[in-house]
Amino acid sequence: MIGIFDSGIGGLTVARAVRSRFPGHDMIYFGDTARTPYGTKSQQTVVRCCIENTRLLLDKGAKLVVVACNTASALAMDELKSLFDVPFVEVITPAVDLALNDPKNRIIGVIGTRATISSRVYETKIHAKAPNKIVHSVACPLLVPLVEEGWAKKPETRRIVKKYLVPLKTRQIDSLILGCTHYPVIKEIIAQKAGKRVRIVDSSLACATALESALADNPALADELSCNSRMEILVSDITPQFEKTAGFILGSKVSLTRVVL
Ligand code: DGL
After folding, report:
1. Both 13 and 137 in a single domain?
2. Given the DSSP bridges, would you call strands 107-112 and 2-6 parallel, antiparallel or unpaired?
3. Do 70 and 104 share a domain, yes or no?
4. 188 shares a domain with 63
5. Per-residue pLDDT of the chain (261 residues; tens, 9 = 90+)
6. Is any ligand 1 atom within 6 A of the Cβ of residue 69?
């Protein structure tokens, strides 16, 4: 089965995208809701959490792990790849590739958690492939709690998004990378506040495309993945709010199972 993890519920946007591409494949999702958010934590702590999350998914039978979290993808990939002998698909490289596939994109904006933005991973990866692109990034630490809290449609969320995007609008970005897997939940608001001419690059959709090519390149692995259309959602803490937000993201009532790491 395909294992997917995030710091919380937001990575379900990736699970949703993966499920729509691979409706028959079994999937196990782990949201580390007891320790969310990761974006405000140190690299050491994020790496430790990611190792435990990966171990859990592999113990449950995952044959491939999707790191459905930009913060984890920015801070923990080297460690995960050196410790575990399974294929990983992360979210940052696919988002960068998607942003770069439009040659008209000269000025690229990135929004993400504090940890992702201060790692400068997007700048590094974009400039490694396209040194002439201009990248401006802004940390938006309030957006993850707003999404987890189910405030996706509140006017306060609109106002906060608008304020965060001011420096990017001033710099006349051509595209905007949603560098956090929680942000697709408020994609319409972000697109509206960014303005019509800005192309939105959704890292959750880019990640599902990367998974598709990883499996096309590795038919033996694709054969190993079970296909009974099962989807299990594990979390490290359950509250009614988490259940509500998870249902909102997946568009159906969901049942969460609590696990102790
Ligand atoms: N969904 C995460 C990301 O893509 C997480 C946020 C967090 O835990 O701060 O970065």
Report:
1. no
2. unpaired
3. no
4. no
5. 999 999 999 999 999 999 999 999 999 999 999 999 998 899 999 999 999 999 999 999 999 999 999 999 999 999 999 999 999 999 999 999 999 998 888 999 999 999 999 999 999 999 999 999 999 999 999 999 899 888 999 999 999 999 999 999 999 999 999 999 999 999 999 999 999 999 999 989 999 999 999 999 999 998 888 889 899 999 999 998 889 999 999 999 889 999 998
6. yes
Q: What is the CATH number of the domain that holds 156?
A: 3.40.50.1860
Same domain, 84 and 146: no
CA 81, 87, 92, 97 torsion-angle sign: positive
Q: State which ligand 1 atom lies nearest to the alpha carbon of 8.
A: 8
Residue bearing the CA closest to ligand 1, atom 8: 37
- Give the pTM: 0.94
180 classed as catalytic: yes
253 and 212 in a common domain:
yes
* Contact of 110 with 177, CB cutoff 8 Å: yes
Domain that holds residue 107: 93-203
* Residue at a domain's end among 180, 203, 226: 203
Cα 223 to ligand 1 centre (Å): 31
Q: Which of 59, 12, 39 is nearest to 261 (CA)?
A: 59
